[in-house]
Give the backbone structure.
Amino acid sequence: MLEFSIFKKVWYWGIAAVLCLLSVPTLLTFTNIHLPAGVPAPKVNLGLDLAGGSRLLLEADRNQVVQQRLQGMEESVRTKLGAAEPAIGIGDVSSRGGRLTFTVRDTSQVDAAREALLPLTNGAGLTGQRDWDISVVNGNQFVLAPTSAGIDLEVSNAMETAVEVVRKRIDALGTKEPDIRRLGGTRIDVQVPGLQDPAALKALLGQTAKLEFKMVDETASPADLAQGIAPPGDEIAPYAEGMAEGPSPVIAVKRLGGITGDQLTNAKQGFDQQNNRAVVNITFNQQGGEKFAALTSANVGKRFAIILDGKVLSAPSINEAILGGSAQISGSFTTKSATQLAIALRSGALPVDLKVVEERTVGPDLGAEAIHKGAVAMGVGTLALVLFIILTYGRFGIYACICALAINILMILGVMAVFGTTLTLPGIAGFVLTLGAAVDANVLINERIREERSKGRRVVQSVELGYKEASRAIFDANITNSIAALLMFAFGSGPVRGFAVVLMIGIVTSVFTAVTLTRMWVAGWLRKARPSDLNL
Amino acid sequence: MKLLKLIPDNTNIHFLKWQWPFFISNIVLMVASVVLLFTHGLNLGVDFVGGQMIRVTFERSATAPVDALTKTVDKLGYGEPVVQNFGKPNEVSLRMRLPEGTEAQPQLADAMAQKITTTVKQAFPDARIDGVDSVSGKVSGELLKTGVLALSLAMLCISIYIWVRFEWQFAAGALFALIQDILLTVGMFSLTQMEFDLNIVAALLTLLGYSLNDKIVVYDRIRENLKKHRRMPMAELLDLSVNETLSRTVVTSLSILIMLVALLLLGPDVIFGFTAAITLGIFIGTYSSIFMSAPILIWLGVKSDSFVQTESAIDRQERLARERGQPQP
């Protein structure tokens, strides 16, 4: 137990030295010393609960994705069957209950319709799985139901896009080092260090920014609209708050045949040249520009509604075909709200609505206070502990304090820095537990050495037995702690996970420092000093 | 230098003489904790019930206008907030629960948080919002579920490991002692009505780790002594093991307490509940290591020969074959 080859000695102290060195950049952040630029310096990041900042947990609604998918399918079906030779007429279209149903008017065309629709139901993936189940009931009623694999894929795609859009929007706000990641099936975790008031961020993320242009149906009677009844093929669109142009807070628009504003290359806040009000200028890409030109040239003299997230911003008349690929969104904007809309449009529409289901904001003062007080408490506590251990175990106590406490702390920080782990408040608790366990390992060993000495064994033999007999309990204790840590990491959330990460790292470094390093050191001392008795 | 010895060498305290009084008082305490949990419940934080916890500092006041703040927020119609002093006299924490029956509105929590903070800032111009925790009903339910799941799974897997490494009686003993530690600590939270949030779950996990350390050390010594002193009566052997590890148990618990007391007195207010939970748990855990973990083994019937190698089936066949004098394959 006490023999170490020179190779092992160099290797062990080498590991300790390298990992301790890696903790230096982290420690320097507490001082005014700065490393020269260009030196690679991995650092332990402080969690938002310590550094201050805002964390938002956003959630999308899976049902909404399904609903959008059904609507998209309805348009495809109409286009496809309308373009068939001869055209296939359908009716009784419904997208309720998570599936699309319609009837083919002429029963002799059922087979032709089925043939035409089959390509639409194929999955985009390589697995060959269908995205849609297609079936015909009662002779001529088609039922198109999205398969769960298809929905999963769609949700997954939507979330990936959503993460990108969220990232672009947050970047546009000019915040530093936001951390945006997908969490589970339908959630996005957004962490923005240093952000004190997340209201602007939430307003920006709460906007889906789905821009649509739909034709206004002037024939609808205001009385019907007030009662919520829309003419066939229409839908009722409410005006955005404070933006109504007439006495009615709603207008009727054609459900189909409009275009969406997702094919934009740019969006900027600007001012209307006639009345100097804030507007958003948008530029379409080639394809979007062509569609927009087609829509406006076919409807000169009529009104179209500019709809954002289901709310009408304004419904201007089309005075002439707009062919240049750029357009102006008017509405009762302030400069600020126009700028925000421009950001939202530039970063693209969110494929789904996102709702804030959890928020944690810590002001910078609170975080600074937590760090300061925490550091003072840790300092005082550690000093008292070192004093206590040295008073109890003398020379062996010094070894324990240097290895199990000092080197251990530095090594944990070093490992955390390499892995880019974040240190949170519960993480500090994990630190305390780890250090406690490391001290305990030395207490176990030293008590055992004492015991063996009092039984009359010789010095070297006592030390050897002390390490050997104590190792078993240390091993078992650390295994059980790692089981707990692994489970916490796998099943826990937030604070519990932060705690588990530090614990897992700490268990490994603790065994190394508290058992291996102290043993090597004690062995070296025994060989050199050859003591006849131990003051223990 | 004369070294400190808190526990003299070769103590010989008959812990097991008092096993019944201790056992009965333990059971009484555990039952009391359960009763408390059912009658008083826990003061669950927003992590677990949903709602808001908002920290406000009144920058230009010596003391926070608690009553006025309560009234202002109450007028919003979401219910009456719980306003408590937190740290300095001009710092308060404001807690709101989600109104009943609003689980289906995930956006409500966020809307409430926004409304409350803007209202407070308007009504009290010197109010500085230091922190906002807003948790919707759906998320809080999940947090509670994963917290309990992590805790129970950890206890279960640890017991299985101890079963494999030791004997089933040891696993059962450790599990009982751990349940006792958790139950008494949670019982104290119910008694004092201190806020019980996610950080406290991390605290419970921490003390689970410490307490387990203790028990394993004692059990390891019992295992060792069982192999060493085959003929010693169980009660005597257990007493010996606990006495031999007594010094270590006390020194370790004291080391940890030194750190914890420093954190408790000087540490940030945010982790006061957390540190308090662990400190309390260390006392309970040390107590259960010394007085509970060993006697349980007697009741569960650990015998002197529990760790003596028994003959495996194959060994037996070979031995019988040898005895019958047949040639070896």
Observations:
- Residues 364-419 of chain A form the longest helix (56 residues).
- Residues 395 and 535 of chain A are 8 Å apart (CA to CA).
